[in-house]
Amino acid sequence: MEASHFPGRHVTAAPETQAPVIQPGHTFASVTDKISAIVLTRRTPVAWLIGFAISFLITMMLLAAVGWLFVKGIGIWGVNIPVGWGFAIVNFVWWIGIGHAGTLISAILLLLRQDWRTSINRFAEAMTLFAVACAGLFPILHLGRPWLAYWLLPYPNTMSLWPQFRSPLVWDVFAVTTYATVSFLFWFVGLIPDLATLRDRATNRVARIAYGTLALGWRGSARHWYRYETAYLLLAGLATPLVVSVHTVVSFDFAISILPGWHTTIFPPYFVAGAIYSGFAMVMTLAIPLRAIYGLQDFITMRHLENMAKVILVTGLIVAYGYGIEAFMGWYSGNGYEKYVVVNRLVGPYWPGYWALILCNVIAPQVLWITRLRTNVIALFVMAIVVNVGMWLERFVIVVTSLHRDFLPSSWDMYWPTKYDWATYFGTIGLFLMLLFLFIRVLPMISIFELRTLLPEAHVKEPEDLRVI
Amino acid sequence: MPALYGLMAEFRSPTDLVDAVVRARQAGYQRMDAYTPFPVEGLAGALGFHERRVPLIVLLGGLTGAVAGYALQYWASVIAYPMNIGGRPHHSWPAFIVPAFETTVLFAAFAAVLGMLALNGLPMPYHPVFNVPRFALASRDRFFLCIEAEDPKFDREETRRFLETLEPREVSEVEE
């Protein structure tokens, strides 16, 4: 690999021992053709058709489950008093956590000048949007009267009511809607030059008009690029504190309450780490089959997978530290209720959930210390699925074990999800996958223009006798 | 004959393009633009283009968001709909910081995107450079320099001869 000659955006070459971020031998034309062909000319793979059909059917199941919910109300779910939150909030937190990887990869890794982010940022951003869309469904469905969801927003109304700004649930509305909007802007701005590429390469008239409209007339002018890069960098700078704030606010939904097991200061950092952890696991879950099906091993190399595995390992350790502190504080607080929450998690009626989460999130990822497993695609794929499951279990344990046995034993009860809970949960997985299948079919899943900048010939060689004016 | 927008030279590498821009400026041309498939470091500088308006717009957007977000909460919680919630003051400023932060980011992000697009004059459905058939490669692997007819030094023959000296792949006329 050739190191860059000046301090640009694409800075460091990999150490000799690491795989390159892009296989040698590619040119501007070859990366453009290879990625745009997936959308424009290559036959749709059979795997795509099968995958889309299955995810479409699962989405129809979601539609049925939600339709019945609208008819009957949330009584069809397993929620009760004391467990008023149940699957809706478990799934909300799980999805929003998954959504964090996209912005993290796009924004924070851009600011940290990690050039390996380039091959995975586009579909990680798309994944973020779809995950946030799935996440947003749950609190709205959980409202009971979802058609009045707009009451959450501040607007002048005939009832003369305003939202309660001291409530973390209102903060959540602001945090999640801002996050969804900014993630969309970031994704769209990143797409504009690639949409122009598709416009110029499409032979189909309809496709050319569609991509041309979305490309907004982008022509790659040097002045435009200059402002574009400034705006993109500033967006990354804005998205960085935003991504940290979103899961912090989600954790406030819990931490600001007085419930034992929730009322703790470790929640914000531990939730943010958990979000990155699950988000990278989901990126890996998607990247591994995608690179195999579309033959993108040149662009999503072992280096990407190994780096993601390292991020999973590190954030997994932070999450493990969070579990440790939770248990420690239960004992150290000297508070009987806090102590009981810990005991109840370890040996109470939901003990299998707790121990399964420790197995999935703390013990299993330690195999990533071993280089051979960290560079084995199958092992990484299995590991990523295990982490996805583990992080879902974590949210289940947090939500259900704290709620089902709080201060008064007379108010204790058990919570079991119903088939509608499961149908809604799996239904959103179907919706997520369906949107993702559509995305990879109609938009370039890897940022083409950013890949071009990674090539050695993208760097301007400055001769001695010419000085930039 | 249709009016001429300018003359366009096509290059194979970013180095050749930056080189061409520097030479064109040394030759006294002022009205020109370069078109590339990705952001080329130093190209805007070579064109003599220095602008600081996008960061300023983003700053103003962020400040507007912060003030608007906080003012909305103050007005709703203190003036329009004062409620005693667990004895907390109507003006609970620590709680108001969270939504105000979110509106700051939201407004700043919109300012960045809309400001960038507006300064770039986008969306723009038609532009003369698209009349050159080979310009489709500007979004793939080719680099273009267009000296515009509005340039005081522009002369159809003279400028074409000058562009030929830069060893481009070809020089084409851009119709208005």
- Give the CA-CA distance, first to last residue of chain A: 31 Å
End-to-end separation of chain B: 10 Å
Order of helices and strands of chain A: HHHHHHHHHHHHHHHH
Largest sheet of chain B: 4 strands, antiparallel
- Helix fraction of chain A by DSSP (H/I, runs of at least 4): 55-70%
Number of strands of chain A: 0
Query: How big is the Rg of chain B?
Result: 25 Å
Structural domain count of chain B: 2
The side-by-side strand order for the widest beta sheet of chain B comes to 2-3-1-4
The helix-and-strand class of chain A reads mainly alpha
Short description:
The complex is a heterodimer of chains A (469) and B (176). Chain A is mainly α. Chain A is built from 16 helices and no strands.
Task: Annotate the secondary structure layout.
The complex is a heterodimer of chains A (469) and B (176).
Chain A (H helix, E strand, L loop, with lengths): L27 H13 L5 H27 L13 H13 L1 H12 L9 H22 L25 H34 L3 H11 L6 H34 L11 H27 L8 H31 L3 H12 L3 H13 L7 H4 L2 H28 L14 H24 L5 H7 L15
Chain B lengths: L3 E8 L2 H13 L5 E4 L7 H4 L6 H28 L12 H27 L23 E6 L7 H10 L4 E6 L1
Antiparallel strand pairs in B: 1-3, 1-4, 2-3
Helix pairs in contact in B: 3-4
